[in-house]
Amino acid sequence: MSPYVAGLPMYDWPEVRDEVDALWTAIAARLRAAGIEAPLSLTRPDRFEDLWTVPELLLGQACGLNLVDGLRGRVEVLGSLDHGVEGCDPGDYRSVLVCRVGDTADDLAAFRGRCAAFNGRSSWSGHGALMSAVAPLADDGRFFGECVETGTHRESIRRVAAGEADVAAIDAVAWHLALDHEPAVDEVRILGWTDPTPAPPLVVGWAHAHLVDAINAAVVEAVASLSPEVRRPLDLYGYRVRPAADYEVIAERLAAAAAAGYPTVA
Fold it and tell me: Most buried of 92, 93, 238, 263 (most Cβ within 10 A)?
């Protein structure tokens, strides 16, 4: 049995689980070839946080917001997968601002006093990026009339489509998954985009930081080896090795939002 655990939870939708497993199989094979006892299968806890903080973490995928907050000093950044997000450099991403198809709003300012859906308070793409985007529009620290926490980007899309919320920020990679697999996308439209930031980082537990170079080499080779049948469902185009300092832009944007008088937690 491997002494390590691994997980790739950020875009692990049921419809692409086989492809996510194939990605891990390719990575694990190269790690084992390098003498690292990688687990044969991924760990899929009910809560992402239960993966990020285990001492045995060999490779995980976290949210950049958590990286600049609760995970400081607990994980080492490896890099980010490149999903070819429109308007972004390789390995970066942003969020799609969506509203209902029949909504006449033409920009984010038109949603003052209305209801926003977000997947979770610890999400940059669904919550932090949205708060940062509306901060310049806030009046005495307020903009939306109500915010609804949905649990997932997919559910946020469904809430907007059903008229239970008016606007949401959806991770662009999750948006592409929804275009392939979520019928509710037919009832929403793109209102705009948030600013690009580094995509969710692959990380290793701090106790195993000495393996960073070996893990990065394995990921680079594994991603390059994948067939189009695996790459296409994941919109996976490459991998970018990067330092933790790249993610400080998230902390800076949160600080700017707070300075503008808008709460970073809805």
Answer: 93
What residues make up the domain containing 40?
5-85+198-252
Domain check: are 70 and 105 in the same one? Answer: no
Q: pLDDT digits over 65-78, tens only?
A: 999 888 888 899 99
pTM check: above 0.90: yes
The three state secondary structure string of the chain is CCCCEECCCCCCCHHHHHHHHHHHHHHHHHHHHCCCCCCCCCCCCCCCHHHHCCCCEEEEECCHHHHCCCCCCCEEEEEEEECCCCCCCCCEECEEEEEECCCCCCCHHHHCCCEEEECCCCCHHHHHHHHHHHHHHCECCECCCEEEECCCHHHHHHHHHCCCCCEEEEEHHHHHHHHHHCHHHHHEEEEEECCCEECCEEEEEHHHHHHHHHHHHHHHHHHHHCCHHHHHHHCCCEEEECCHHHHHHHHHHHHHHHHCCCCCCC
Residues 78 and 152 in one domain: no
108 with 184, same domain? Answer: yes
